[in-house]
Each structure stands twice: as C-alpha cells, then as structure tokens.
Amino acid sequence: MGIEELKKAAIGLLIAFGLQLILGMILNLFITIPTIHPGDIGSNYFIRSMHSLWWILSLHGGIVLIFHVYIGVLLVTGSIALFIRSLIAKVRKYLSIMFLFVILFTTGAFFNGLSFIDYGHNISSFIMILCWFCAVSLLTLGIIKLYSQNK
Questions:
Q1: Residue 38: inside a domain, yes or no?
Q2: pLDDT at residue 90, as a whole number
Q3: For tag attachment on the chain, is the N or C end more exposed, with fewer CB atoms within 10 Å?
Q4: Measuring CA to CA, which residue among 14, 128, 18 is closest to residue 78?
Q5: Contact 105, 76 (CB under 8 A)
Q6: How far apart are CA 142 and CA 138, in angstroms?
Q7: What is the structure's pLDDT at 34?
Q8: pLDDT at position 149, please?
Q9: Nearest to 127 by CA among 140, 108, 103
Q10: Cα distance from N-terminal residue to C-terminal residue, the chain
Q11: Three-state secondary structure along 64-99?
Q12: Does residue 95 lie in a domain region?
C-alpha cells in the first residue's frame, strides 16, 4: 500500500462525506422522518439505535434516509480502512493520528444521527454536523499533508 493509493482512498472518502452532507440537508429540509418506528420504543439507547438502524437498512424510512444511513455506514468503515491503510503505508505518525480522529468524529456523527432518529432532538442533529465538520476538516488537512510529502 503506497502513498498514492492512500491519497485516492482519502479523496474518495472526502467525496462520500460531501454526498452525505447533501443527503442530510435534503432530509433536514424536505423530508419528515416517521415518528413511529421500531427505534422509538424502550429506554436503552443502544437497543433503540440498533432497532432503528435495522429498520432503516431493511429499506424503511424513505429512499433518502436509506442512502444517508448506508453512506454513514460506508463512512465509518471507510475511515477505519483509511486509518489502517495509513499504518500500512507508514506515513508520518501525526497523519495516522489525524486519521484516527477522523474515525472518532465519523463514529460520533453516526451515533448522533441514530440518536436523532430515536429521540428527534435537534441537539443530536447539531452534534452530528459538528462531528461531520471536524472529520472533514481533519481529512482535508490530512490530504493536503499527504500531497505535500512528495514535494
């Protein structure tokens, strides 16, 4: 795994983050998420979230929500893969640490998205976009650093 493949993977992930933002804005502005679904029952956050996730991934909740969640899963797994690739490519340690924080912020956005589905609180949506912004900022900075390493 070389630096060039790592750059391509990082740019692909950044494009997926952009698509995620567009779908999130469509959801926010034009689509009402059903208030009655399997994730709105119970008090345990993780059980509610798992029920909501399976409900959405089994093609319920509308096409935009389905794509939004599928891309969210892709972003979490893609950010983990990017971190592992950065370790294999033996980039500078601070880059791998940056990509590790991309995982943390991406996972934070994902879980706050599930929280928004479960509870409908706007604070979850706000935290989700803050985590998205931090992940994208770190990823962009990492890409810039990757390109500046070869010069």
A1: no
A2: 87
A3: C
A4: 14
A5: no
A6: 6
A7: 77
A8: 78
A9: 108
A10: 19
A11: HHHHHHHHHHHHHHHHHHHHHHHHHCCCCHHHHHHH
A12: yes
Within-domain flag for 70: yes
pLDDT of residue 74: 97
- Quote the pLDDT of residue 123: 96
- Distance, in Å, from the CA atom of 106 to the CA atom of 128, rounded to the nearest integer, reads 9
Buried b (16+ CB within 10 A) or exposed e, 34-59: eeebbbbeeeeeeebbebbbebbeee
CA distances from 13 to 18, 42, 62, 109 (A): 9, 34, 24, 15
DSSP code for 31: -
Task: Give the HSE-up count for residue 99: Cα atoms under 13 Å, Cβ half-sphere.
Answer: 31
Cα 118 to chain centroid distance, Å, stands at 17
Question: Which residues form the domain of 114?
Answer: 43-149
When divided into structural domains, the chain yields a total of 1
CB atoms within 10 A of CB 29: 7
Q: Is the pTM of this model over 0.85?
A: yes
* pLDDT (0 to 100) of residue 151: 52
Is 51 among the domain residues?
yes
DSSP of 9-41, one letter per residue? HHHHHHHHHHHHHHHHHHHHHH-PPPS-SGGGS
